[in-house]
Amino acid sequence: MLLTISLWLLVSILILWALLDPVSRVSRALYEIIIPIIMVKTVDLKNQFGEWAVVTGSTDGIGRAYAKELATRGINLVLISRNIDRLEKTREEIIEINSTIQVKIIAADFSKGRSVINEIEKQLKDIPVGILVNNVGKQYTYPMYVGEVPEDEMWDIINVNVGAATSMTRMVISGMQKRRMGAIVNVSSGSEMQPLPLMTIYAATKVYLKSFSDALRIEYKKFGITVQHLTPLFVNTKMNAFSSRLQVSSVFVPDATTYAKNAVATLGKIDTSAGYWAHGIQTFFTLIPPKWIRTRVGEMMNQTFRNDYLKQKNI
Ligand SMILES: NC(=O)c1ccc[n+]([C@@H]2O[C@H](COP(=O)([O-])OP(=O)(O)OC[C@H]3O[C@@H](n4cnc5c(N)ncnc54)[C@H](OP(=O)(O)O)[C@@H]3O)[C@@H](O)[C@H]2O)c1
Ligand SMILES: *[C@@H]1O[C@H](CO)[C@@H](O)[C@H](O)[C@H]1NC(C)=O
Ligand SMILES: *[C@@H]1O[C@H](CO)[C@@H](O)[C@H](O)[C@H]1NC(C)=O
Ligand SMILES: *[C@@H]1O[C@H](CO)[C@@H](O)[C@H](O)[C@H]1NC(C)=O
């Protein structure tokens, strides 16, 4: 009798323990959806973080939309991307939105690694950066097996996704610490939630970013610095050009402007977020099944995208 009871007790505790992890993950996701809804007051970004923002990868997609949203908040901008013509065009678009702000442009290719970082550092010497948006990111041309990834593409992914965010953060964080204010925003990806077969390297770099943000936040919290980690799911940008399925905007695949408006509104309110409410809901449901199922589903999705791509290219 006693044995049966203790056996059942043990089993119940084990089940409870096993359930606790998904419960905490899922309630965290729920919390992230709710906070921006209850905290309706707009944060004065300029007062709270500073007058200047640096946005990497800012001439297209999420980065450009994010920069424009900051412009409407009266923040001066430094735009960093590879192509000088696109940079100038983006600067004009932004000045049109708000002619009272200053916009500086820097042409740099983060896939070149350390050499461009020194050049950027020189150009940012006299600018008190209040917000750094680590947005630039490189994804696979299409889903591939690790052995198929061209060597150049592999290094580009690592240099851009890991190197740029890490070195840009290191560059600006001491200034923020001195001024005792600042925000570092990391644009990661839903692919950090589980390993992603056929996008192995990309997903792994995004996990690096998550760990980096989480640790950085604790290191610098005492200096008044906010570290926000954004995990968008699919956004309709040219990054997803390999699949026509992802080139149609919808509630769940928003355009970059919608995404950025929502994401900027969460800054200063919550440290980790999908950045956009419908993605928050998707994340919530995504986190319910165990990781091994999510990994399999991710693999199947990418297999589909791979087939889409190969069909488009007639390979
Ligand atoms: N779109 C999505 O569905 C999605 C989902 C989850 C996460 N994300 C993440 O969101 C971020 C932005 O993605 P996106 O879709 O907005 O990208 P995007 O539309 O492809 O825009 C990329 C931007 O980065 C610049 N850029 C690209 N390579 C660069 C390099 N080597 N050095 C400097 N600048 C470079 C591009 O300008 P130039 O070509 O002029 O350099 C462009 O301004 C990425 O970190 C991505 O991982 C996107
Ligand atoms: C432009 O920036 C100023 C602050 O420099 C701000 O007060 C104003 O609201 C912004 N204007 C627009 C149209 O976004
Ligand atoms: C953003 O996160 C990624 C990983 O979490 C990290 O590599 C990067 O340095 C972080 N950047 C900032 C500004 O926190
Ligand atoms: C593979 O699927 C995951 C979602 O499971 C997605 O985040 C990722 O972007 C996909 N990769 C490609 C290249 O579509």
UniProtKB/TrEMBL annotation:
Keywords: Mitochondrion, NADP, Oxidoreductase, Signal. SUPFAM superfamilies: NAD(P)-binding Rossmann-fold domains. Belongs to the short-chain dehydrogenases/reductases (SDR) family. 17-beta-HSD 3 subfamily. GO terms for cellular component: mitochondrion. Residues 1-18 form the signal peptide. The keyword Lyase does not apply. PANTHER family: INACTIVE HYDROXYSTEROID DEHYDROGENASE-LIKE PROTEIN 1. GO terms for molecular function: oxidoreductase activity. CDD domains: 17beta-HSD1_like_SDR_c. It is found in: Mitochondrion. Coiled coil: none annotated. Its main location: mitochondrion. It holds the Pfam family adh_short. This is Inactive hydroxysteroid dehydrogenase-like protein 1.
